[in-house]
Design brief:
Elements: H1 20-26, H2 33-38
Length: 62
């Protein structure tokens, strides 16, 4: 993918690509497009899955 504003990366090979479909398959994103469509949303809806770690607000310093 070329960016005319920043040609630095143009000649470098892509060594890895992590697609939206990969993230859905891994459970990092959740495809809720069907439910969002029922609610009237016309764009794809794929929110991030809940984190297995507690939120930063759950931390209580001792």
């Amino acid at each position: 993918m070329s960016d005319p504003r920043n040609p630095f990366w143009d000649d470098l090979p892509i060594i890895d690509a992590y697609t939206r479909e990969d993230a859905i398959d891994d459970g990092v994103l959740v495809d809720v497009s069907g439910l969002a469509g029922e609610a009237g949303c016309t764009s794809p809806a794929r929110p991030a899955a809940p984190s297995p770690w507690p939120s930063p607000t759950a931390y209580t310093p001792t």
